[in-house]
TrEMBL record:
Protein name, UniProt field: EAL domain-containing protein
Residues in EAL domain copies: 511-761
Coiled-coil ranges (or none): 497-524
InterPro entries: Biofilm_reg_signaling, EAL_dom, EAL_sf, GGDEF_dom, Nucleotide_cyclase, PAS-like_dom_sf, PAS_4, Rev_trsase/Diguanyl_cyclase
4Fe-4S among keywords: no
Amino acid sequence: MAVDEPDAEVPEPAGPAGGAAAIELLLLTRRLRDFTTGATLSLLPALGSIAALVYAFREQVPLAILLGWAAAQLMQLAVYVVFDRSLDREDPSLAELQRHWRRFIALQWLGSLIWAAIFPYLATVATGMDAVLLAVVAIAVLCGVLLVHRTAPKAAIFHIVAMAISITAAILIQTGGAGWPALILLAFFVIALLGSTREQERQIVGGASAEISRREAAGTVRLLLNDYEEHSSDWLWTVGPCGNLREVTARFATAAGRPVEELEASPLIGMFAKGEDRDRLARHLMERSRFHDLVLKLRVDGEVRFWKLSARPRSDGRMSGVARDVTNDRIIEERVAFMAHYDNLTGLANRYLFNDRLRAALAQGERARNVALFYLDLDDFKAVNDTRGHLMGDRLLREVGTRIEQAVRGHDLVARLGGDEFAILIETRAGAGMLIERAHRFLSVIRDPFEIDGQVYRISGSVGIAKCSEGNCDAEELMRRADLALFAAKRKGRDTLALYDQAIDRAERERREIEMDLREVIARGQLNLHYQPVIDLDSGAVVGYEALLRWYHPRRGIIRPADFLEVAEETGLIVPIGEWSIRQAFAETAKWAGDFRIAINLSPTQVRSPHLVAIVAQAIHAHGIAPERVEFEITEHVLMQESPLSMGNLQKLRQLGVRIALDDFGIGYSSLSYLRRFPFDRIKIDKDFVEGVEDSADNQAIVSSITRLADALGMATTAEGVETRAQLDLLRKLGCQEAQGYLICEPAPGEHFATPAAISAAMRSGEASGILDYRKAREAAMKNRPRQAG
C-alpha cells in the first residue's frame, strides 16, 4: 500500500489564492502519503489484535458476533485499499485529492467506531487474563492514533474521543466506581494525545508552507540561472564527489571547444595545464572546500586561454561553481606586469627590476663580493636623434640592447635605465683585468656598424665599472661607484672605459665640495674679476680688456675658471655667476679712463638663459656703458646645440649694439661652418696655433688663412696666448690685428687698470717688462712713416 511521492511536482498558481491552493495541494498529498504509510505499518498489529480478541473471547460471547465484527474491520480495510488504488498517482488534481481525503476520513471514522464498539461489549464478560488482554489492546488502539492518524487531525480527534468513551465504558463495566484511578490515567493519555495531534498538525502545515516557499525560491533561482546561463559571460559547472563533470551545459562545452558528451563524467582538472594552480584546484575538489577566483590555463582549439573558477560544495556531495574566460584581462595584467619590470622599447629589464635584482644579489652575504656592475652610456646619442629622428634612435637603442644581451650569460641581467644608458649586472670572481676585458667586449659590440633600412650607423659608448670587492657596499653605493666610473670614462673621451677606484672617489668628493661652495660663493663675496689687456699690433695701444673670473677660496686660495666652471655649467650655477660677472665688469670698468672695449665670456648655458638680454640691457643702462664697447665671447659649443633660444638671444644682443666674438677659433671640427651661420664681429685665434707659430710652417699657414678669411668676411682677429716677442712680431706680419697674452700682461685685478699710471705699472711688471718699449718703438715708427714716404 506504499504511495509514490505525488508532491514532486506541485502546480504553483500565481497570486495569493494560487499560493493557498498550492499549500493545500501539498498538504493533501503529504497527508495521503503519510496516512497510507501509517496504515500500512499498523496493518499487522491491527490484524493481530483482531485475531487475539476473537481467539480469547470465542467461548465467552457468541462466535458469530466476533466474526461479524472482524469481518467489518476487514471490509473497512478492503474499501480503503480500493480507494487508495483508484487515486491518480501521476498528476492528481486538488479536487480529486480532496474527494479521496474525505473518503479516507469517513473510512477512519467508521474504523474507529468499529473498534470503539467492541470494548464495552467484551468488558461485560472479561475476567482474569482476558480482561488484561482487553485493556492492552484498548490502550494500543487508542495510542495507534500517533501512527495512523498523525496527519489527519479530524480522524485523530474522532478516534481519540470514540476510544476514550469506549474505554471509559469498559472500565466502569469492569470495576464500577472503584476504577476511578484508571479513568484519571485515561484522561492524561487523552490530553497528551490531543496535544500531540495538534502539534503534529502545526508542524505539517508549517512544513508545507516552508516547502512551497522553498520551491518558489528554487523556481526563481532556476529561472535566474537559466537566464544567467543564456546571457552571462560566465558558465555554470558541476562536479561529482570524485571531481568529474556533471550536467555539462552547452555553453560550457562550447567555451571548452569540446562536445558535451566528451566532457560529461570527465575529470575537471584534466582540462587545465599542469602547474601550481591546477594542483590547488585538485586539492579543493578533493577536500570539497570552497574557493574563489582561481585562474587556470588551458588550451581551447589550440589557443592558450585563461579561466577564472569559483565554487562551493553542495549538500548532495557535489560542487557547483562558475567559470569565466579572463584571457584578455590576463593579457592586460601580464602586460602591466611586464611594463612594471621591463623596458617597453627594448624588452630589457627596467630600473625597477634592476634595483630589485641588485639588492637581492648584494643580500647574499659572502657572494656579494662577486657582484660587478657595468654602466654603459652611448656617446653623443643626441646627435642621432637630432639628425635621424627619434624613431631611428629608438630602433638603434633596440639593436644596442640586443647586442649587449647577446654578449652576456643567460643568468646575467641587462637593463635599460633610461635614455641611452644601460646597466649590466653580473656575478663573477674575476679580477679587475677580466672586468676591463669584458667592458672592452661591450664597447666592441657597440662599435660594430649597425645596418638599419639599408643605412649604416656607427656609434660608440663609454663604460663605467664598479665592484663591491670588499663586500661592504649596498646597492646605492655600488650604483654610485659605477656612475662615478662612467663619468670618469666620458671625461676621457669617446669609446673608452673606467674602473672605479679611490682616486675617482676623491675627485668626485672634491667636485661635490666645489659645488657646495659654489652655491654660496656670491653671497660670501668670494668672486672677483681679473682683466687681461688686449693691444693693437700696429699701434701697441691697449684697445680692450677681457674680464676673467677668479674665485678667492678661503682654504684653496685663488681658483681659476678651468677648475670650477665645468661644475658650475653642469649644475646651472653658471647663470647667476655669469649675471654677477656682467654687472661687476660693467660696474668696475665704467670708472676707468679711456675708450676701450670690455670682453666677457658667455657659456652655452648662459646663452640659453631667457633672462640674458634683459640682464645685459639693465647693466648697460645702469652703468652708462656704450653698447658698442661691449663684446661677448662665445665658443662653437653654443652653436653646436642648435637652440632657437640661443640664436635668438645672440640676435637680440646684436640689436642692443654689443659685439659677438667667436672664441677658440680653429679647434672645432666645423668652425668654418659657424662663420656662415652667424655674423661674428671678431675671431679669436686659439693659443694652440699661436704657440710655436715662429717655428711651425703649418701654424703660420693656419694663422694666415684665418686672418685672410676674417678680413674677407669683415671680421677682426685677435690672437690669444702670446708669450714671446717673436710670436708678437710674426702675428703682426701674418695679418693679425690684436693680441693678448702673458707677454703683454698677466690677468690682474681691476685696480691695476683704473688709471694710466696703474696700467703702465701693470704692463712693466714681471716678465712683460719690455712691452712698453715695443709700444714706444711702434709709435716712433708710425710718426716717421709720413716723413719717409715723402
